[in-house]
Amino acid sequence: MQPSVWQILIVAALVLILFGRGRISEMMGDVGKGIKSFKKGITEEEEAASSKAKLEPKTIDAAEKSAAPDKTAS
């Protein structure tokens, strides 16, 4: 069962009465700021990880050394 237009209008009116127009716009502004902050944090983390990968020299583990054939012995 889908809500009718009247039911939606009644719920919207009750929300406006309970919270007021200013409080709802303030909450939406806070939600927007939170989303922007989240996106900024994600991009900063990705940039830090990529710059860290570029700066670190590649190291060979002991397991990789033993698995690689020794070319000087032939």
Automatic annotation (TrEMBL):
<keyword id="KW-0813">Transport</keyword>
<dbReference type="InterPro" id="IPR003369">
    <property type="entry name" value="TatA/B/E"/>
</dbReference>
<keyword id="KW-0812">Transmembrane</keyword>
<feature type="transmembrane region" description="Helical">
    <location>
        <begin position="6"/>
        <end position="24"/>
    </location>
</feature>
<keyword id="KW-0653">Protein transport</keyword>
<dbReference type="Pfam" id="PF02416">
    <property type="entry name" value="TatA_B_E"/>
</dbReference>
<feature type="compositionally biased region" description="Basic and acidic residues">
    <location>
        <begin position="53"/>
        <end position="74"/>
    </location>
</feature>
<dbReference type="InterPro" id="IPR006312">
    <property type="entry name" value="TatA/E"/>
</dbReference>
<keyword id="KW-1133">Transmembrane helix</keyword>
<keyword id="KW-0472">Membrane</keyword>
<keyword id="KW-1003">Cell membrane</keyword>
<protein>
    <submittedName>
        <fullName>Twin-arginine translocation protein TatA</fullName>
    </submittedName>
</protein>
<dbReference type="GO" id="GO:0043953">
    <property type="term" value="P:protein transport by the Tat complex"/>
</dbReference>
<feature type="region of interest" description="Disordered">
    <location>
        <begin position="46"/>
        <end position="74"/>
    </location>
</feature>
<dbReference type="GO" id="GO:0005886">
    <property type="term" value="C:plasma membrane"/>
</dbReference>
<keyword id="KW-0811">Translocation</keyword>
